Amino acid sequence: MVDDIRPPIFEDQNKKEEIQNQPHEGQSSERDAFSNHSQDGFVVVPEHVSMPHARNPFGWLSHLTKKQKLIISLASVAVLLGGGGGAYAFVFNKPAPEPPKTQAVQATPTPTPPPKPTTEASRLTGVQISPELNKRPVTSVQIENSPEARPQAGLKDAGVVFEAISEGGITRFNASFLETQPDYIGPIRSVRPYYAVLSAPFDPVFVHAGGSADGLAKINSLGLKDMDHGANGAAFQRASDRYAPHNLYSSTAALDKASQKRGYTTSDVKSFTRKTEKKGQTPTASSINMAISSALYNTSYTFDAASNTYKRNLAGQPHTDHRSGVQISPTVLVAMSVPYSRNGIYSVYQVVGSGSVTIFQDGQVTKGTWTKASEKEQIVFTDAAGQIIGLNPGQTWITLLKNDSQVTYTP
After folding, report:
1. Which domain holds residue 13?
2. Residue 136, CA atoms < 13 Å, CB-side half-sphere
3. I need a labelling partner for 354 at 20 to 30 A (CA). Which of 105, 283, 336, 375 fits?
4. DSSP letters along 295-361, please?
5. Which of 213, 212, 229 is nearest to 141 (CA)?
6. What confidence score (pLDDT) does residue 28 get?
């Protein structure tokens, strides 16, 4: 190799000088050859010709200090190690092994719990209300319907209303309240046994002013939360614009206060089956008539598509609220045919059992069967196929009739 060419060693120094001073044989031709080859872009170095540093690519190392040489050596090792994979691939025609991949471990995010619902279905009406309102006890109030009692207060706010004949063809209402809290309710009158049985599934505070012997006994046997006027006079007031017995009233606040004193703070409600309302259908029953007893007590309804409710008329006139003048407008109408008889002057309804029913909602009419398995069980409505009929959320008005012929309707 060119790097190992060294000048000849002479033992005789005089001979060395003599030779150095004499030109070598063929020296001029060799230099010419050197010159010619350099013009072609490469150089041929004769064996006996020594080269300067330009001819020795590593000659410059001799001028470095030991420390500099050490640094260069370490750098060279690092370069060789880094390029080892490429050399392996070049020699063996195989891909260089990849360094092991480090997979980032992603932390599992803590699931965010869904927000608690701000509303829930009312246990009485099925409409969406705050959970706090749903904890209130149901309050069922006996409300009079003689001509002297009209217009009544609070009926428009009731969640469920039962309408039936008390005696002598005169109808009376049992109105139940939960989320709505009217400040004026009445006139309040006495109880009959079937009103107590009809409202019993709501486990209500039962508000009344006396009652028939059977009615009072039924409240006790059912274990209802009794709120009789006689024992709770402070919760009632007499109106000055009417005469007794058509002037006894109360309010939600007064009844709540009396209920809390007696420990009546909640109700174990058995609800009606509810469904989602279906607006916009072509009505099959827009005008409805119920011949309950006589012209003074017969009712009629007109379907209002905009509100999906039924505007109530009593004795041929709009049935309105005493203070606001707003017309009563139930969302659901139920006409139950119930076996009927009389005990002296009092009506007797066989409300435990079953019978035919006609239901009006969404402008539609559905015929089916009502069933009440026991006094404390809720009424269940089923269609001709035996499927449960759900009721729209909102005020449900249930009228007891003697037979199906007492209800008629037109599209």
Report:
1. 1-21+28-60
2. 21
3. 283
4. TTT-EEEEEETTTTEEEEEETTEE-B-TTT-PBP--SEEEEEE--EEEETTEEEE--SEEEEEEEEE
5. 229
6. 44
What token pair was written down for 283? 């009505």
Residue 45 has pLDDT above 80, yes or no: no
145 located within any domain: yes
252 and 326 share a domain?
A: no
Flag whether 90 is in a domain.
no
Residue 84, in any domain of the structure? no
3-state secondary structure of 163: strand
Instruction: Kindly state the tokens that stand for 152.
Output: 């009544």
Q: Which of 49, 260, 242, 247 is nearest to 139 (CA)?
A: 260
Q: Give the single-character DSSP code of 111.
A: P
The CA distances from residue 198 to 348, 387, 398, in Å, are 13, 22, 10
Are both 307 and 382 inside the same structural domain? yes
Residues 135, 175, 398, 400, Cα dihedral to 10°: 140
Q: What is the dihedral of CA 218, 223, 228, 230, to 10 degrees?
A: 90
pLDDT digits (tens, 9 = 90+) for 83-138: 454 444 444 455 556 666 666 667 788 888 888 889 999 999 999 999 999 999 99
In whole angstroms, what is the distance from residue 365 CA to residue 382 CA?
13
How many separate domains does the chain show? 3
The reply to whether 250 and 192 lie within a common domain is: yes
- 280 lies in a domain? no
